[in-house]
Amino acid sequence: MAEQSDGDGGDPLLFLWIAVPAFFAQNLGQVKRSCPEDRRPVVLQFDGVHKRFGSLSALDGCTFEARPGRLTGFLGPNGAGKTTAMRAVFGLLQLDEGLVTWRGSPIVEADRARFGYMPEERGLYPRMRVREQLVYLGELCGRTSSEVSRVTDLWLERLGIAERAAARVDELSHGNQQRVQLLAALVNEPDLLVLDEPFAGLDPIAMGSMAGLLQELAATGVTVLFSSHQLDLVEDLCQDVVIIDHGRVVLAGELEALRAATPQRIVDIHYRGPAPAWASVPHVRVLESTLGSVRLEVSRDTEIAALVSATTAAEEVTSFTYQPPTLSDLFTGAVRT
Ligand SMILES: Nc1ncnc2c1ncn2[C@@H]1O[C@H](COP(=O)(O)OP(=O)(O)OP(=O)(O)O)[C@@H](O)[C@H]1O
To answer: Which of 104, 203, 216, 285 could form an SS bridge with 40, CB 3.0 to 4.6 Å?
Structure first.
């Protein structure tokens, strides 16, 4: 696998990883994924991946997987190694150790013809017209012009930007440029979609439509891995999460299972009147307390009756919720400060 870019700067034509193989066209027949006798695991797998930049370990034995038909949130603080890992999927950097595999085999260019990538650098040609650019990019993946035109028109319509098809990319709003960028990752009808912060900078409405779209794609069996710093959104959207810190995976798996497996439970109470003495209840820790609301941490085995009994001292209780830690709580607990 050739190292194409290891530089720090943004490469505006980044997704030219798909550009080289015009010869994909004649090879695509060999990469059909629906072969029923093929029982290899249909996952994207990172296995002990190391990537160093000089003395800095950007990926330090990174191991995780993303599964088909599911949304996997790829989380971590700034500089944790998310973009580096995503670039590794596309052969945009040379790994020092470890393997990234797709369906159980090291990824080759023919696999990448069926992958979609939305890079952090957002590499569209700013002066090229939207539809023309999308068709061009789809053709670079080895698709015929009519195939790619059909998919492009479908998605332009679906994303509500069909009327801007003839506009230049740099004439579009940020949100619409982001939609076109996503579309550029979809024109080859990918089996795997890797998105670097697809929600960054979107307004709430655009976020909702992007979220809905990713759910729809996952529902059709696409493997979707995306990075984000918006933990509430990831919690609402993703079945699986991978949390990475200093190049190492510190927590990974099915979100609900990870939440349920924690020994802590979080109790949020909203009330009127003076604050009851919750801290006096055994095994209760006050995490936050403001006038009229309190957040408590209890153990999974704490006797809730004692807590409820203490709460009745409030003038009125307007809400009482008891739940496992949120994704944000898990993230804070997992990541080194
Ligand atoms: N080409 C490079 N040369 C040198 N260092 C690099 C290079 N690319 C990434 N790094 C470093 O590797 C580490 C991981 O960077 P990366 O961009 O993967 O993190 P990230 O998790 O995507 O961060 P963010 O959330 O801020 O986007 C950082 O310390 C970064 O400075």
So the answer is: 104
